[in-house]
Amino acid sequence: MARLGGCWAFLCRCFFQYETPKILLIRSKKVGALNRLVQALILAYVIGYVCVLKKGYQDTDSVLSSVTTKVKGVALTNSSQLGLRVWDVADYVIPPQEESSFFVMTNLIVTMNQTQTRCPELPSSSTNCSSDKDCSAGFVDVRGNGVQTGKCVNFSDSARTCEVFAWCPVETDSEPPNPAVLANAENFTVLIKNSIQYPKFSFGRRNILPDVNTSYLRNCIFDRKRDPHCPIFRLGDIVSEANEDFQSMAVHGGVMGIHIRWDCDLDMPESWCVPKYTFRRLDNKDPDNNVAPGYNFRFAKYYKVADNVETRTLIKGFGIRFDVMVFGKAGKFSVVPTLLNIGAGLALLGLVNVVCDWVVLTFMKKSNLYKEQKYSYVDDYALVSTSHQFHLFL
Amino acid sequence: MARLGGCWAFLCRCFFQYETPKILLIRSKKVGALNRLVQALILAYVIGYVCVLKKGYQDTDSVLSSVTTKVKGVALTNSSQLGLRVWDVADYVIPPQEESSFFVMTNLIVTMNQTQTRCPELPSSSTNCSSDKDCSAGFVDVRGNGVQTGKCVNFSDSARTCEVFAWCPVETDSEPPNPAVLANAENFTVLIKNSIQYPKFSFGRRNILPDVNTSYLRNCIFDRKRDPHCPIFRLGDIVSEANEDFQSMAVHGGVMGIHIRWDCDLDMPESWCVPKYTFRRLDNKDPDNNVAPGYNFRFAKYYKVADNVETRTLIKGFGIRFDVMVFGKAGKFSVVPTLLNIGAGLALLGLVNVVCDWVVLTFMKKSNLYKEQKYSYVDDYALVSTSHQFHLFL
Amino acid sequence: MARLGGCWAFLCRCFFQYETPKILLIRSKKVGALNRLVQALILAYVIGYVCVLKKGYQDTDSVLSSVTTKVKGVALTNSSQLGLRVWDVADYVIPPQEESSFFVMTNLIVTMNQTQTRCPELPSSSTNCSSDKDCSAGFVDVRGNGVQTGKCVNFSDSARTCEVFAWCPVETDSEPPNPAVLANAENFTVLIKNSIQYPKFSFGRRNILPDVNTSYLRNCIFDRKRDPHCPIFRLGDIVSEANEDFQSMAVHGGVMGIHIRWDCDLDMPESWCVPKYTFRRLDNKDPDNNVAPGYNFRFAKYYKVADNVETRTLIKGFGIRFDVMVFGKAGKFSVVPTLLNIGAGLALLGLVNVVCDWVVLTFMKKSNLYKEQKYSYVDDYALVSTSHQFHLFL
């Protein structure tokens, strides 16, 4: 019984105890100043940089976004091939809707009334021929327009090429018209509606801000200075803000990035969370180390004429694809990253002792005095009580 | 030789030494209890919150996803303009395939047999005219349908507007039919196939789970309670789960988000990693601070009639765009974040001493006794041995 | 005055002081070796794993990307239904452009000359009938082709099915042709242009590397060994690199992922930042727990024939959708993560003392000697001055 009581008292003693390091307190102007300086530096870093600048006390989330676009505008063209023609949004936006990008055709090469039949291929090193022997029936060139029939026929008065079975006549692979056919696309406008969410914080917002009224929206055009929150953009402005020339870009086409950045500090009022628009050309306009510069693709309109024969109008459409890219980061106070940073900051405060000890025990005149006070020794080599040995050394 | 040996011995001594702080062990119920309490709090935070709740021991990766969709359903409409007509998937899904979204047309305004010619523009403040002087040839209104010819013509018995060169007749800019033409789209179904990957962990999974059999898949319809893993959704259910009314949404169109969340703990059995579906309306249905509410776009079908004249049927299609958004985070045990968190946790344990020392040395009755034991002093000011000075003070 | 001076001196004394823990230095081969070993292990982890392997000193950013694609190739088909026909890019890429994916049709079921009229539905358990009573007028099956008229008509000599109002004749729901109609798509090529950005570091790059010249680009084909940086891919190569068979995939279609990984260490020369291409099949080709295997969708070409009657050609297109997925992470030296990791590393060094103290004070023969030197005691239980008590013990 007494034994048990003793055991219990021992456990109590172990539990109700507190270990605190023994401290040597050096009162010295030099050492103290050094100490406070190093402390101040580390505190300044932890508070200033981690907390204020980098917002290390916040948990972050990245954005989920949905974009819809609507282009408006009409252009008139007059070419020998198509005659006088007006182009509206159903004609020049292809496909009519996409998820977060839109394509506006600015230039085109039209090949009308193609049918499935035989015709001479375009002249090139692999299609030029002088007799049927130069052409092999069934051969398909991956860069050609059709399947060779094995005959050599007149392409023009001067050139003979292999005949192909293809959509004929084949498209003449020439440079696109310059200036661009739909040069007027510069004045088209696009309404971009963007709705974002930060799922971790259940926070949603739209690029049409709550304090903007409807009548303003009907007539505004985005302008970085005067109308920075208007969601309607003139295509020409988008391109010129990216320091590009719309008219020269319109000829061969290209890809423009419309970047919408939503950097939101959710510890601040919600109305501070506004989108920031920037524009950038994404494709490479340099002719060097480039292939197929600009942006174009081919599509066709299919018709059936008399006798049920299918014909098509092939269009090589050059134009500008606008990719709307939404990105950003929301931050909100959270306990985990805060304590992670405080923990790391405290650990850095441990550096104070490392630095100061090194200076104090190495460079100070009285370093021996400090050493004597700071250190006790247990020396296995000498197998004598340390402090005696130490005094003997002195 | 003796010297070298001495030097070597000195280096050995430096290397084979161990610095451990001298500790003052205070055995006191009050102090001990305080100590254990603060320790317990910090340990509870580190273990409970960081490790269990926030899974701070895991490395995370975000999802890479691929989505395919397939809509099914047929709707019958009967209008004076189009007559009796049946609509199938090739008619109402435009474009026929997209990467991770699909559009279902629910309502439409059709303008048939448009050709490139001249006709009166719709009446508006900028197109109303009383004589040719009010119209300027070549003027293009960005919100208009064509290019003004400079003539003022009768739009109706009562109104005169400027004539335009355009696809004529121009679309009458009226409200869409209500109820929606394809109101039956509510019963259409969509099969969503989603395949995800966490590239960092080489982990892939599909939303058709391995334990689901094929015959079930042919007939099931998603239901949050009874069939939560069926990948076939009724469009009406998607909209009503988001607390919206399909029939009123169908009139002007809108954008729905289908969110698929893959939160996977890869330390757990793979079969616990299942997708969670939620639905949300993404566009703004409020008429305030809004412009062009709903979702619609224009597209055309082009025909060639006799004499090679191109005509088109312009369709302003209203409908619901469903954006499939896949997100989520996978976590798996990893050494770096674990040790980062342990390190930060240990540093936080350093807080125990800060708190306890402050309490013990400030508020305890016996604080002077503790101070005396904890601190030694080297005082440059007095230039006397500290311990003597200290004893003198006492 | 003297008081104030004294107060000031006291504050000075507090400010200009430096607390450093008192250290017990144990000089012992065993203890020293243990100490150095644990230190070495922790340092090796911090430096080797966190800094070198995981690059813990870097801030990271994820990629923003823009992709354009251009398919080339021609295929010849010969079927009883369509006759001899050549297919080019405008025929088999649907829609003609997408944001970061492209679809190449490899197989198709064509239903020509559909008009809006009445015809027998395909036989199935819900459409087979023996008399008009079995059919209900107005009934729409979500998996059917049209709206039932209520009549039971002959589907073939042997089968009778309910009549539907639909696009007639309805598509025969048969298996797609095997081998695939456009089997030659294996030889098509695609040019993929990818432009990426790391917005946090204002760093941009293209997959056409600056040191590649234009004439090389015109003729190269991607090959993992010989041409790893050529942006032109043969479709057959993409599929076979993913260990799939193109010809069998072409029959029912499928989804391929083209993964472009941009892992860039921006502390290194920019030219080390190159894209890495991998290919993977994304859809499930197993017939088990699957529904609608492969990838297909329906689209139609609309025609107007004589008398203004609209007809259409319905195409069920099977093919391969290629999803270009761009991902990656850029890292660049940054102060915050570096110090966060150093802080955590230092805190881990604190573990050295925990481990060594435990070993030294528990297992060493001379542990009593060490304890005696390391610890001082203040014992509230005995209510005697600790050092006296301690000396008495000795």
Automatic annotation (TrEMBL), chains A, B, C:
Keyword presence, Glycoprotein: yes
Gene3D superfamilies the UniProt entry points to: atp-gated p2x4 ion channel, atp-gated p2x4 ion channel domain
Database matches in InterPro entries: P2X2_purnocptor (IPR003045), P2X_extracellular_dom_sf (IPR027309), P2X_purnocptor (IPR001429), P2X_receptor (IPR059116), P2X_RECEPTOR_CS (IPR053792)
Biological process, per Gene Ontology: calcium ion transmembrane transport; response to ATP
Paired cysteines (S-S): C119-C168, C129-C152, C135-C162, C220-C230, C264-C273
Sites carrying sugar chains: N187
Subcellular localization, as worded in the UniProt entry: Cell membrane; Membrane
Principal subcellular localisation of the protein: membrane
This protein's GO CC annotations: plasma membrane; postsynapse
Substrates-to-products reaction catalysed: Ca(2+)(in) = Ca(2+)(out)
Xref: PROSITE patterns: P2X_RECEPTOR
Annotated positions binding ATP: K70, V71, K72, T189, N296, F297, R298, K316
TM segment ranges: 342-364
Origin superkingdom: Eukaryota
Protein keywords: ATP-binding, Cell membrane, Disulfide bond, Glycoprotein, Ion channel, Ion transport, Ligand-gated ion channel, Membrane, Nucleotide-binding, Receptor, Transmembrane, Transmembrane helix, Transport
Membrane topology of this protein: Multi-pass membrane protein
GO molecular function: ATP binding; extracellularly ATP-gated monoatomic cation channel activity; purinergic nucleotide receptor activity
Assembly behavior: Homotrimer and heterotrimer; functional P2XRs are organized as homomeric and heteromeric trimers. Homotrimer. Forms heterotrimer with P2RX1. Forms heterotrimer with P2RX6. Forms heterotrimer with P2RX3.
Family designation: Belongs to the P2X receptor family.
Function comment: Receptor for ATP that acts as a ligand-gated ion channel.
Protein's recorded name: P2X purinoceptor
